[in-house]
Specification:
It is a single chain. It is built from 5 helices and 7 strands, in the order E-H-E-H-E-H-E-E-E-E-H-H. The chain has about 200 residues and is an alpha/beta fold. It has a single domain, classed as Maf protein. It has a 7-stranded mixed beta sheet with strand order 2-1-3-4-5-6-7. A hairpin with a 2-residue loop joins strand 4 and strand 5. Helix 4 packs across helix 5. The longest helix is centred in the last third of the chain and has 21 residues. The radius of gyration is 17 Å and the shape is globular. The structure holds inosine 5'-triphosphate.
Length: about 200
């Protein structure tokens, strides 16, 4: 079977790992954005995950012949009116780190009782080829923000995102367990089905 080229257009290593693990086994030859050594950086300025995902995808895919996959994701907390939302990566300041972002969320929610700590993770995936969008998929996972960090796996806000069905935070789940239930995993599941059809179609 002929390999189809796929560019995973993210600078976030945590995301890149989860995406490539999920797509393993498909007849794809995967390239990561960081491998291209490009100095171009897309400035995310949209108010929605989908708009940002489209923008990033088309920007990084503009010089790429194969398929391009872009993702925008984030954490939306009910009592913070959906914040950090599209600003999840840079919530504490423009040079934010996961640690600083988590500290800011915990500080803002210091006095919020457990029943008001609901949140959701959202992942928007956009697949394109030569500027044409082929698929747009959204996945979501609902949970509760903890008051302290727990777990050592994952990235970003995983240590403070408690997932009730498994009675653990996302950072307490193995990579496989997280991918099976997470916002990104759910979106990737649909993308995999799409790609399986697309790859068969392209190869015949
Ligand atoms: P790219 O734009 O290059 O893909 P980024 O990290 O800037 O990388 P986003 O703008 O989509 O990506 O921001 C996503 C942020 O949301 C990410 O940095 C984390 O802070 C958070 N996030 C998204 N998915 C997450 C997950 O599965 N677990 C924990 N935090 C997550």
């Amino acid at each position: 079977m002929i390999d189809i080229k796929l560019l995973i257009a993210t600078t976030n290593q945590g995301k890149a790992k989860e995406i490539s693990a999920y797509l393993e086994g498909l007849p794809l030859s995967v390239t990561f954005l960081l491998e291209l050594n490009s100095l171009d950086i897309y400035e995310e300025d949209s108010l929605s995950f989908l708009e940002n995902a489209r923008g990033k995808n088309l920007f990084y895919g503009r010089k790429w012949e194969g398929l391009t996959l872009g993702e925008d994701s984030g954490l939306a907390i009910d009592c913070l009116q959906g914040a950090p939302g599209v600003r999840s990566a840079r919530f504490s300041d423009p040079g934010a780190t996961d640690e600083k972002n988590i500290a800011k969320v915990l500080k803002l929610m210091e006095d919020v009782p457990e029943e008001e700590r609901k949140a959701r993770f959202v992942s928007c995936l956009v697949l394109s080829q030569k500027g044409k969008i082929l698929a747009e998929i959204t996945g979501e996972a609902r949970g509760v923000i903890t008051s302290t960090k727990k777990g050592r796996f994952g990235f970003g806000y995983d240590p403070i995102f408690y997932y009730p069905p498994l009675d653990r935070t996302f950072a307490e789940l193995s990579p496989e367990e997280k991918n099976a239930v997470s916002h990104r995993g759910q979106a990737l599941k649909q993308l995999k089905t799409f790609l399986q059809t697309h790859c068969n179609w392209t190869n015949t």
